[in-house]
Amino acid sequence: MASTAERPFLDRPAARLVAIGIALAAAGALAWINRDAFSSAPSTTSVATSNPDLAACLDERVGAVDAMRRDGVINEQQYGLFRSRAQAYCTARYPTQ
């Protein structure tokens, strides 16, 4: 077996610890950058109260999506997608300030 002095640095356990540390730091940085994506979506009701056109659009569009789910036309996965699209449409059409 070769002694530690003869082995290159990248073959030593210290190099592996450094690599693990770098990987953990990168994962932590990615989690920090995307922390908003991990949290729940912001509520549109507080924004809608300041803009009556937005509130009416959300009532109509999201109400239609809710009715489609209630009638069994769409499944839960489609419901989430359609609801987020309806909210995005209304907030793009009636921006607040």
Characterization of this structure:
By secondary structure, this protein is mainly alpha-helical. It folds into two domains: 7-39; 41-93, no CATH class. Helices cover 68% and strands 0% of the residues. α4 (52-70) runs antiparallel to α5. The mean pLDDT is 84.
DSSP, total strands: 0
Classify the beta-strand content into a percent band.
under 5%
Structural class: mainly alpha
Mean pLDDT: 84
Describe the global form.
Answer: elongated
What's the helical proportion of residues? Answer: 55-70%
Number of domains: 2
Order of helices and strands: HHHHH
- Poorly predicted regions are none
Keywords: Membrane, Transmembrane, Transmembrane helix
Transmembrane segments: 14-33
Helices and strands in order, then pairings?
Blueprint (H helix, E strand, L loop, with lengths): L12 H21 L1 H4 L6 H4 L3 H19 L5 H18 L4
Helix pairs in contact: 4-5
